Amino acid sequence: MTAHPSPTTALPAGGSAARLSSNRLRPRRSCLAVPGSNPRFLEKAQGLPADQVFLDLEDACAPLAKPEARHTIVKFLNEGDWTGKTRVVRVNDWTTEWTYRDVVTVVEGAGPNLDCIMLPKVQDAQQIVALDLLLTQIEKTMGFEVGRIGIEAQIENARGLNNVNEIAQASPRVETIIFGPADFMASINMKSLVVGEQPPGYPADAYHYILMKILMAARANDLQAIDGPYLQIRNVDGYREVARRAAALGFDGKWVLHPGQVEASNEIFSPSQEDYDHAELILDAYDYYTSEAGGKKGSAMLGDEMIDEASRKMALVVSGKGRAAGMRRTSKFEIPEG
What we know:
By secondary structure, this protein is an alpha/beta fold. Helix content is about 45%, strand content about 15%.
């Protein structure tokens, strides 16, 4: 399927392009889900150390509560203190009667205090294009900066996974691709009732293909890849095990449904201090040895380790995650004598 051009593809280059690229690198180690209809939870979420908070109008809101929840979310976005957090609202999917009113009410009411709209159950690129069009019309009508609000696309069924590459390319607003395990497991008739756990009778990792396909689509388009929730919220050890699997593959973060999962997610999706220091040393050393003063070398030794351009690229990934997490290095590159 070929994605249609999005209205924001016509944005001028330069500042807008740089901003869009920067937005795609927001820290998202922990993405906290908060019911949009629960003021107590919305209040508490502001004080938790999650990188991202998404205020939910979809599964966490009963149908009769959705209209009022929209206005509750607007109030908390405008009046709450979300300092240091990426502010996201998950609307309902396009197959429902609620989506357009979710977007219009929330964006018109709190657009300047909103970073992204999360769209669940994305099945094809046209659904992203439709959301992009609606956001653009609202931004123009309200006098907001066109294209500033990002889109997070949630993959929750087989059709969405098959089309994930086109979805990732559908709009420059897209910042993340998210795996939604619960609906996905149901959509493919997976034999398990524990979201995120391996189905009985299968000796390997049943999610490996799904996670890798999402990750490849994200990385091919300079997007972040986010793993979905682990519903046994009091089983932090189980959460850690599932989160480590996604982190090992290269995912940028994971959903958290309970305050007890936040610290675990932040830790698992951050590099260790040792790895972060080592990455920064590689970058400094490579920069020096490829310079005139360092002899313009394509490869060199850092202690007992040979480093080259490939080493630099790998170090950039680790250092980028560490810097985004606010880590401070504890080592310094020393120019060798002589």
